Amino acid sequence: MKRRKVLISLQLLGIWFIAILPTACVDEIELNSIGYERLLVVDGNISDHSKTHEIFLSYTSPIDENTDASEPVKGATVWVEDDEGNRTNFTEHNAGSYLSPINFAGTVGRSYALFITTVEGKSYESSFQELVAAPEIDSIYNRFAVKEFNQTAETLPGAQFFIDVKNTEASTQFYRYEWTDTHQIIVPYIKRLDATRQPNGNYVITPFNENVRECYRERGHNELILATSTNNASAQLSEVPIKFSSSRDFDVTTSYSIEVTQRAISAKAYSYYRRIELFNESNGSLFDKQQGVIIGNVISINNADEKVLGYFEVSGISKKRVFFELEDLDNGVIENAFKPCFSLSQIEYDGGTLRDFYEATDIPEGNERATAITVRAQYELYDAFPGLTGTTWVFAHRFCVDCTYRGRLGKPDYWP
Question: With contact defined as beta carbons under 8 Å apart, do 212 and 191 qualify?
Fold first, then answer.
């Protein structure tokens, strides 16, 4: 089960303290001299959608530890209670991952809190939060855009997707968004032959019977996306930017789908996520202004001074999925989309072996041959037929003969 990537690592949060360095010289920082606190990190949420919900518990790791993995909290007792005292137990599925019953759903209007007891006997709990219904998403649409990346001064053309929500009056004023998208990839050439290179450099050619024409590539969000209607008297959200996809990554050949999840969150949850956003924006180096530890809504019952990271979110959810054909995309998006099979033509090679083709023996030695070898390495044999001087081998770029280079076989259940 995929977890939200909104938690900030201990190294970035500034839990440790760095001495002020003199401006006239540069001193090496000894990582093992930095103070370290082993803190509990809580990552999870519940909603009004009936499903298996997850709470993931872990401990922070020292900055000088040679690993990106956090230490999972094992063997804890984890449950959620509503404001009427109804308790739902979460069961440990994998190390640190605690799951609700499969059909669990919160009830709009009820308030919920998270409770944790570790195997060491330490107790933690969150504040109660009311579950508020999320309004429906009215539309999802796209426009051509050019995005600037401040860190590299690079500009990239691409597709910017927005949503509109016409009626937010009966809900909260604060929202968090998630998205998943799917590219349908259909290659133009049917692969009938397969060539396998042998240790001696020659190739063995065999019939290819697998259908690798149609694939689907699914991706999900990895950033915080927030919106608020607090300054909007019309009780609606307009042109909320959800996802930007650069042209180099937007390789729609036929159809594209995107699903947006809208979470109605509390003002405190919004404030917490905004602090994370500001922290990420302001921390380009160790010497930027430090925001300090970003504390969520979970506290230690045993030790009032103990810091707990992360957040337990209670949110109402609405979802919308849309499908785009090529003609539904903005003209600028279509013009700039990655289309390798339109720009890279097939190659017919007559009168030689496959080894001759890949070693470019038909081209004089020098830079031109070296370039040809590099280009041809990206091409795959997909067919052959008798030619005037022998077999004519037919090649195309690998992206155009085998869809598994860019996606997976098997149509998703939601695809029409």
Answer: yes
- Which tokens sit at 335? 């013009």
29 in a domain, yes or no? yes
Does 148 fall in a domain? no
CB 171 within 8 A of CB 133: yes
What distance in Å separates the CA atoms of residue 53 and residue 342, rounded to the nearest whole number? Answer: 44
How far is Cα 176 from Cα 261, in angstroms, rounded to an integer?
8
Number of domains the chain is built from: 2
Is 334 a member of any domain?
no
Q: Which of 1-5, 111-115, 203-207, 297-301 has the lowest mean pLDDT?
A: 1-5
Residues 36 and 89 in one domain: yes
User: CA 337, 342, 347: angle at the middle one, nearest 5?
Assistant: 145
Structure tokens at 240: 């909320």
Look up the pTM and report it.
0.83
Cα–Cα distance for residue pair 216/332, rounded to 1 Å: 23
State yes or no: pLDDT of 380 exceeds 90. Answer: yes
Token digits for 132? 């508020």
Model confidence pLDDT, tens digit, residues 250-278: 877 789 999 999 999 999 999 999 999 88
Residues 197, 65 share a domain:
no
90 and 32 in a single domain? The answer is yes
Instruction: For residue range 352-368, list pLDDT tens digits in order.
Output: 899 999 999 999 988 99
Q: For residue 375, what are the domain limits?
A: 193-215+339-405
Q: How far apart are CA 91 and CA 229, in angstroms?
A: 37
Contact partners, residue 27, CB within 8 Å, separation at least 6: 21
